[in-house]
Amino acid sequence: MKCPFCGSFQDQVLDSRPIEHTPAVRRRRECLECKKRYTTFERPEEISLAVVKADSSREPFDKKKIWAGIDRACRKRPVAIETIDRIVNEIENELSAEYIMEIPSNIIGQKILDKLWDIDLVAYIRFASVYRKFGDIDTFMEELKKLKKEHTKRQLKAKN
Predict the structure, then answer these.
(1) Angle between helices 105-119 and 81-98 (to 10 degrees)
(2) Taking a C-beta distance cutoff of 8 angstroms, is the pair 90, 97 a contact?
(3) Is 90 exceeded by the pLDDT of residue 97?
(4) Model pLDDT, residue 136
(5) What is the pLDDT of residue 152?
(6) CA count, 13 A, side-chain hemisphere, 133
(7) CA–CA separation, 72 vs 129, rounded Å?
(8) pLDDT of residue 159
(9) What Å distances lie between residue 89 and 11, 12, 54, 93, 110, CA to CA?
(10) Residue 158 confidence (pLDDT) above 90
(11) Cα dihedral 67, 114, 154, 144 sign
């Protein structure tokens, strides 16, 4: 590591600590030349994943887009920012574990829907209406009927 004060590459790590909820590590260092101390942060190199869209075009994976979509669906709902952060991190971790180079966009959308189902059904239907491109009220009503049927089934299962 290059000292930000004198430019020397000779340093000593005094303390290392993981940064909570991230794969990063904070290191406190001391330059062996000028004796000044400084802090560095180390993160694993991220593999650039590509999202394959429905039209076969590709774009870089962007965690912020997932966050924005979930945030939009949860707006004015009793869903904490921490919950959105947790969902986004879970999805990112699952995708990183399951895919190496390319991720079909429909997989991302379905993972978001699965997470929203467990968090807030109104947010689920909001996201589904955009993701599945409900074209008319009949399509919307069909989805609501499926949602109601599945919700009732899960409630009955939970009681038994």
Answers:
(1) 140
(2) no
(3) no
(4) 86
(5) 86
(6) 2
(7) 12
(8) 82
(9) 34, 33, 24, 6, 15
(10) no
(11) positive
